[in-house]
Amino acid sequence: MFSRVALRAAPRQQPFSLVARRTFQTTRAQLSSPYHYPEGPRSNLPFNPKTRFFWFRYLCYCVVGFGAPFGIAVWQTYRPRS
């Protein structure tokens, strides 16, 4: 990590150095490509959080997911021994 910082901070004395300098480049999104998917917030989610009752379904999912192990433990504790 420190070597890159040192190389970046060192002045270049040769026009063609052995260490290539990396630059960040941006390209325009190619929408004609079949492999390009929409980008942006909430575009990669398998559900739509903008629906009317999303909060209720999410709350139920969290309660069941968190409470199921405790409910199973209580059920196994109080079941009759055989």
UniProtKB/TrEMBL annotation:
<keyword id="KW-0809">Transit peptide</keyword>
<dbReference type="GO" id="GO:0006123">
    <property type="term" value="P:mitochondrial electron transport, cytochrome c to oxygen"/>
</dbReference>
<comment type="pathway">
    <text>Energy metabolism; oxidative phosphorylation.</text>
</comment>
<feature type="transmembrane region" description="Helical">
    <location>
        <begin position="55"/>
        <end position="75"/>
    </location>
</feature>
<dbReference type="InterPro" id="IPR036636">
    <property type="entry name" value="COX7C/Cox8_sf"/>
</dbReference>
<comment type="function">
    <text>Component of the cytochrome c oxidase, the last enzyme in the mitochondrial electron transport chain which drives oxidative phosphorylation. The respiratory chain contains 3 multisubunit complexes succinate dehydrogenase (complex II, CII), ubiquinol-cytochrome c oxidoreductase (cytochrome b-c1 complex, complex III, CIII) and cytochrome c oxidase (complex IV, CIV), that cooperate to transfer electrons derived from NADH and succinate to molecular oxygen, creating an electrochemical gradient over the inner membrane that drives transmembrane transport and the ATP synthase.</text>
</comment>
<dbReference type="Pfam" id="PF02935">
    <property type="entry name" value="COX7C"/>
</dbReference>
<keyword id="KW-0812">Transmembrane</keyword>
<dbReference type="InterPro" id="IPR004202">
    <property type="entry name" value="COX7C/Cox8"/>
</dbReference>
<protein>
    <recommendedName>
        <fullName>Cytochrome c oxidase subunit 8, mitochondrial</fullName>
    </recommendedName>
</protein>
<keyword id="KW-0999">Mitochondrion inner membrane</keyword>
<keyword id="KW-0472">Membrane</keyword>
<keyword id="KW-0496">Mitochondrion</keyword>
<dbReference type="GO" id="GO:0005743">
    <property type="term" value="C:mitochondrial inner membrane"/>
</dbReference>
<comment type="similarity">
    <text>Belongs to the cytochrome c oxidase VIIc family.</text>
</comment>
<dbReference type="GO" id="GO:0045277">
    <property type="term" value="C:respiratory chain complex IV"/>
</dbReference>
<keyword id="KW-1133">Transmembrane helix</keyword>
<comment type="subunit">
    <text>Component of the cytochrome c oxidase (complex IV, CIV), a multisubunit enzyme composed of a catalytic core of 3 subunits and several supernumerary subunits. The complex exists as a monomer or a dimer and forms supercomplexes (SCs) in the inner mitochondrial membrane with ubiquinol-cytochrome c oxidoreductase (cytochrome b-c1 complex, complex III, CIII).</text>
</comment>
